[in-house]
Specification:
about 160 residues, Immunoglobulin-like, four-stranded antiparallel beta sheet, signal, Lipoprotein
């Protein structure tokens, strides 16, 4: 009897651990906002590395200013879906000066690329004239079929 109870507890704990395991999102979005070109303090190594990556090769103040803005790094993994057409990653967003007008950028990939990454950047004149991004949504399609999406908290 004790052995049966122990066996039941073992199975229950395995099922519980599997059900509580974290599920990796099909779309992961990382953001970086380059507001200033002044060198970040060395205490903030991760932020400084990201800033240096964005400003690499910019020598003049105008070149550096053209790189100010918001960067969105997108990773997607839709291998569990049936993909019959090329992959399309759509970045929809609203900027401060555009109000309710929905803007979008699109990256296309081969249908074999069911896992990958890309980057969308709102920088330079686009950032300076239309302002910061207020909200965003990323959608991954195969043809017309929506496979996965992720959005900011403010997206409606």
């Amino acid at each position: 009897m004790a052995m049966r109870a122990l066996h039941f507890l073992a199975i229950a704990s395995i099922l519980l651990s599997v059900s509580c395991a974290s599920h990796k999102s099909e779309v992961d979005v990382r953001t970086y906002h380059l507001k200033d070109t002044k060198r970040v303090k060395r205490d903030y190594k991760v932020v400084r590395a990201e800033q240096q990556k964005r400003l690499r090769g910019a020598i003049t103040q105008s070149e550096m200013a053209a790189r100010k803005g918001q960067y969105y790094m997108i990773d997607w993994d839709v291998r569990q879906h049936s993909v019959t057409d090329p992959i399309r990653v759509v970045f929809k967003y609203h900027q401060a000066a555009t109000g309710t007008i929905e803007l979008k950028m699109i990256e296309n990939f081969a249908k074999s690329e069911t896992r990958g990454s890309c980057e969308f950047a709102i920088v330079g004149e686009l950032y300076q004239k239309k302002g910061r991004v207020l909200d965003w949504r990323v959608e991954v399609y195969s043809g017309a079929k929506l496979l996965a999406s992720e959005q900011s908290y403010l997206w409606e």
